Fold these 2 entries.
Entry 1:
Amino acid sequence: MKILIVEDEIELIESMATYLENEDFICEKATNFFDAEDKLISFNYDVVILDITLPDGSGIDLLKMIKDKDAKVGVLIVSAKDSLDDKLKGLDLGADDYITKPFHLAELNSRINSLLRRQKFDGSDMIVFNEIEIDPTSKEVTIDNKLIELTKKEYNLLLYFIANKNKVVTKESIAEHLWGDEIEMADSFDFIYTHLGNLRKKIKKYGANDYVKTMYGLGYKFSE
Amino acid sequence: MKLIERTGRSYLILSLVIFLLFGIVLYFILTAVMSNRLDEKLRYNKEVISKRIKYDYPLTIFEEPEILTEAENVLYPKDTVIYKDTLIFHAIEGLEGVENTEEFEKYRQLTAYETFPTGERYKIITRNSLVRNQDFVTIITLLTIFITLLLVAGLWFFNTRTANKIWKPFYHNLNSLKNFSIQNQKPIELKSSNIDEFTELNGSIKSLTEKLSSDYNNLKEFTENASHEMQTPLAIMQSKIELLLQSTNLNESEVNQLQSIYQAGQRLSKLNKTLLTLAKVENRQFSEIEKVNLSELITTKIEIYEDFIEAKKLVIETEIEPEIILETNSTMVDMLITNLLSNAIRHNIEKGTIFMKLSATHFHISNSGNELSVSPENLFNRFKKASSSADSSGLGLAIVKKICEINEWKIDYTFLDEQHQIIVRF
């Protein structure tokens, strides 16, 4: 999978690229409008991560260009402004998702994954992690072909973990992923324990391994 | 005291003083002129008498002319003329049915000591009544008073009439100045006047309010811009720490320190986001008006917060009238309800209660909890928080208040029966 990251802040581009390359994405970087335009004309990408405010132009114009060339390319807008206008404008013009700075890298990764899933319309694209299989279209989870019942939050949590497998995922990013960032409650971490506990119990009950590891007080890691 | 009254009063006092002085001066001048005339007349009479004595001696009017005493001869050795005012007793016999009048009347009197060529010395007294003079003075006084009153009345009438006309734009402008609010972005409307001072004042007010508005806007924009500018460095910080956390060779103490930095960064970015929201509300960026079903919104919000409500074992009671629809901005109402509900959960006690009531006129939310450590008046101010906990930015209620202000809703807080109560009246 090839990703183009358009962002004028080099340090941020580096972080994103490092995290995503670790997930076996091939990342190309462009730090200005000109570079991005050049790369978009010359190469094809599966996903473009696009900062709207660039020093020499607007990301919105790039977005038009991308969608004119190939409407299937997934575009994730990254913006420092979470103003509704920008968001609506971006989405109206064909952007597939919108994320506001500062964001969690795990969240970015999860968004890109779901964007890529949506691109493949056939729905046969199952998410597989050892004995766990997830069908994102029907939102069904099976372990060793046995269907397990998960609540919406447990399902989202599992999907988030698998998208960021082998990575330390912080509690903050989980809370934000499950409840949205407008819910600012410090005690929301307690609810992660509740939902996580239930998820773990259900997975174990159906005979899968407990893949969730606690990383000190910081977060969790979903790995073998 | 109004300026008109103040100046009117000065004019009044001044004119009273002037008329009083005028009256007094007039009185004295008239009296002087008249007594001069009178004295002349007395002198003339005296001349007539002395001529009669000279040529017509002995006087026919008197049986016995008054000859000077020795003492008077000594006192006035030469010819002397003495003028004086004197009172003379009158007794007038009344006619039938009318009482006798007895009174003293004022007279002007001339006493002359004269030596005649024959060597005889006479004392001649002539008098004239002053009553007519006094009448005259009375009339003058009355006239003066009358004119003064006329002037005062005229002045007052004229003053109020012109003043009303002249001051009308001033009062209009004063009123618009009173109603001027820097927050509603409307330029001040001033009525022009052809009085130089007022025109100048209007000019000054206009430039002052314009300056004020532009400063205020700059300040607001500054908050928003500053918050925006902070987002990117925050994003870099956060992403770098998240990457660092992926490295496998960290020991526990390093992880703990990283965690502290990470959490501080999180706090900062949440605070920043809230500040940005507040700035946006203040900048009236949520101006799109639509129909919002408040009943539905509240029900949905309660569902979203279910986890949090259950975790604290809160009992939630609602009296929500269905289909309450407000014409307002949906984002702002969403923020309002979110903030109020999350406050009610966050500042609640274990196994506490939340009560919500919605009607067409108001929204009432109350929750159990401990009494505030900040005074209720300060509750809606920025960064006023009852607890120093990290999870509360102290901006939530400031946002709530701002939203109410923009929508012209009234918000009140009371603490009653161990319950924090907030009522928003639409």
Note: The helical segments of chain A are 10-21, 33-42, 59-69, 84-92, 105-119, 152-163, 171-179, 188-205.
Entry 2:
Amino acid sequence: MIAVVLDDADVRAYLAATGEPPEHWTEAAPPLAVGALVLAALTERMPLPEGTVHISQEFEFLRAVAPGEPLEAQLRVAQRSERGGAVVLALDLELHAAAGAAVLRGRATVVAPTPTAAVEAGATTSEPPA
Amino acid sequence: MSGPPEVAPVRRLIDQARVVAYAHASRDLNPMHTDAAVAAATDFGRPVAHGMLVLALVSEAMTATFGARWAEAGALKVRWRAPATQPVTVTASAEPRGVEGGVAAYNVRCEDELGTVLLTGTASVRLEP
């Protein structure tokens, strides 16, 4: 599990960068801000090769996340295939509140130009590849 | 049965300053988005906006209609179709598909000012009981 916290400054920075009006997000974080930071945290732990392209994304938002709320994220390589010399990876991610309830689930699909040990099927963020 | 609520499109300029700000806000500092020299060596040839930044406009459109409910009961499934090379004016739209089982469903897309489709997919929101 990877600890993730989205604080007020993170929310303000996200809203300023995207241009989204802040009126709906005074007590909760925009779900895409949560999703983006989770992806960043997880891919920092499981680096992908240079040139990797994010081709599709699924998110299921299960409840609002409050700024400052401690969260835990996990990433799992759900599928791995090869296409034209590139590796296609489906990465399942899940974000939990510290109390255990899931607050967000998703799947990111990426195309990586070369295989690496870090992206072999079965690797998870809680069990780093040897 | 009434259909899903209408979702107003969101149109926004994505320029280099916005991409740099988003890179820091999202902590996605991949230089292919911000460094012309690095981007020149990629298949895109030029810096491209983060796909998640383009997708953020869809989320903003859904939020404008559903408010915080979007964060509690929303879902997205999208595929990026073309790179958004900045500066680009992106329009995110959501076309109502229907309401089934208490879930409002939409087809979503993002296009640039030339009509190039950048992203397509679906969005849904479980309506209040």
Note: Chain A has a mean pLDDT of 87.
